[in-house]
Design brief:
It is elongated, with a radius of gyration of 22 Å. The N and C termini lie close together (about 10 Å). The strands form four sheets. The chain has a six-stranded mixed β-sheet. The protein has a five-stranded parallel β-sheet with strand order 2-1-11-13-15, sandwiched between helices. The protein folds into two domains: about 140 residues, Rossmann fold (3-Layer(aba) Sandwich), CATH 3.40.50; about 220 residues, Glycerate kinase, domain 2, CATH 3.90.1510.10. It has 14 helices and 15 strands. With about 375 residues, it is an alpha/beta fold. Keywords: Kinase, Transferase. Belongs to the glycerate kinase type-1 family. GO terms for molecular function: glycerate kinase activity. It comes from Hyunsoonleella pacifica. InterPro entries: Glyc_kinase_flavodox-like_fold, Glycerate_kinase, Glycerate_kinase_RE-like, Glycerate_kinase_sf.
Amino acid sequence: MKIVLAPDKFKNSLTGLEFCDAVEKGIRAVTPNCDIIKLPLADGGDGTIEVVNYYLKGKTITTTVNNPFFEPIEASYLYAEVSKTAFIEMAEASGVKLLQPEQFDCKNATTLGTGELIIDAIEHGAKHIILGIGGSATNDCGIGMASALGYHFLDEDDAEVKPIGANLSHIKTIDTTKIQPKLGAVNFRIACDVSNPLYGKNGAAYVYAKQKGATDLDIEMLDKGLSDFAKVLESTFGVNPQSVKGAGAAGGMGIASKVFLNGVLMPGITLIKDLAKFDQNIANADWIITGEGKLDTQTFSGKTIKGVLDSAKAQKVKVAAFCGAVDLDEIGIKRLGLEYTNAVMHYAKNLEDAIENDFNYVTKIAENFAKKHLI
């Protein structure tokens, strides 16, 4: 019998690999000879880097780059020499996690450091770069990143502008003649889980800038900047930014990744499944066991379990979900396509007990599942 274990993490609790170990322990206590394949997953959020490295088997490279306010910091990324693949999270160089809340000021922030990480990876020999664009402190439409790659952004006097969001409206032309020569030989895949357009009421500034320190006046100015800069992008690259799904992700890094990197935007779970060779590995499986902290209505919108179910349905593989908590009724569970669900909260005395003893409870769930469905 072939069982594939494909969970997300339980936030602030079990990692995906710990989940796999707990489930394996429970199953083997009942049916020792099962063929068990561990494929931990993630959807691009916290903990993704550990899951990526499970497949890449890379090393951490640390270098000095600019933070969102042009100050030097140490930032890291993963690089796997064998596959020439780098995994870069823009939050490492250009993220809100680097700042105190009182420092948030996205109109004056830059993605320059993210571009410097990309350059460093290319200089190390990367031919494939996976870029995660969550958690940004910026709204510069990626001009900081692009500046590090050799793009130059010029005003009406042909003077170079400082690459921050507040200057987007000043840009009249883009000089593309001095781009890093190796850039075109690198394949970029971008983990992007939002579909916001670049500008307008659902765009980067109006939806996300406030939480990055923008005032109402800042938001108006930034939105106009994105709209003005979109015209420059269209005349330079022949792409209408407003037509690109996810263009407004991470303060405009969605469209920046497409035009400056020739990157392909895709959901984080799709990217991780590709790394895991998920569809090949689940072939002829009897069950896939997945899981996450909470099974609820958000699961329908691109989270890990939904990604697992999409692949399982195509190959007619049954799916069980072991979760921290289940907040869906039977109709919702059936709509998702799950054959079996169970939750740690069905066993634990309270939330504290659930978090403290989640490994043991998941092991117990796996045992009970195996007794019912695997023998």
